[in-house]
Amino acid sequence: MRVVVVGAGIVGLATASALIRAGATVRCVDAGEPMGARSAGDTRIFRVAHGDPGLVAEARRASELWDDWSMTAGRTLVGGERAMVSGPRVPAWSAAMTAAGAIHRVDRRSDPWGVLHDPAGGVLDLAAAGAFLRETVRPERAEVTAVAADGTVHLADGTTDGADAVVVAAGAGTPALAAPLGVDVPAGLEHHARFTFAGPADRPCHLDGRPDGPLASTYQHRTRAGHWAVGGHLPDEDTAWELGAEEVARRSRAAVVDHVRRHLPELDPTPVGELRCTPLRGAGDGVHRAREGAVHVVWGDNLAKLAPRIGELVAADVVGDTPVPAGEGDHAP
């Protein structure tokens, strides 16, 4: 079986790797650098904690697969830092973890909602994972302009390629490729930026749902030794695509630096690094899949932590183990 995977971010590479293990011949292409765009950067937060029991279960399976990848790569890809969640979503997330049988605890001593501790959480070494997958998949630089339901792939250089199946996992490029197939992928994008600060980096990853000034919520985790990443979510009007990446980064920087000054005094409040990305507007947690003919489409947000599980499931769809009916989508892997 021959498969073309469009997109060489973490999800595309994970899917291509799973297809190779299943015995398929795979061509993985990307218009930009592999692990660029929304998969750029050294680290992400891995967590089992989610607000939906189905996603909790899928994250638990992803944790097992990350361990498998670590064994194959010869290095730890998810650290043991743990993760914690605070703010008004704690009761619902705790209930979801309980329903899914996931180990956690809620400390109610310091916060009216409690602080949820996720012992399976930690820092995801995204750079190392990408390097490991690139070695297996060997993606190539090529821009895809269209895909057809019969498996024909049209490239920007005027050539075409044919495959038994096509997987579209192209991030911000997915809506344009999916629309002609009748697959409705939300096309709205927004700008986002997180910032790196020098300071202690030996504590759990933290997702804080409590508002702080213009920030509706914040998140923080280690990036590299002695450095800590902090990001926050601004109102929609401050992250609109029309504002441009520079203006959104400026607004984000001002809000995050103010947050650091007031709540994280152990950090030097002058950013030493910045990472930008383009998430789907309002997507939140969740994975969506659909199929039209020979084309399998996957999209969503906050996907890096679930990448090996997404790859496993999409590869199974492609080789026919767990088919997804044409046009059907779901909200969990």
TrEMBL record:
**What domain of life does the native source organism fall in?**
Bacteria
Q: Does the keyword Oxidoreductase apply?
A: yes
What cofactor does this one take? FAD
Keyword annotations of the record? FAD, Flavoprotein, Oxidoreductase
SUPFAM superfamilies the UniProt entry points to: FAD/NAD(P)-binding domain (SSF51905)
Keyword Oxidoreductase attached: yes
Domain annotation FAD dependent oxidoreductase: ranges: 2-315
Quote any Pfam family the record assigns: DAO
Protein name as it appears in the record: FAD dependent oxidoreductase domain-containing protein
In which organism is this protein found? Actinomycetospora straminea
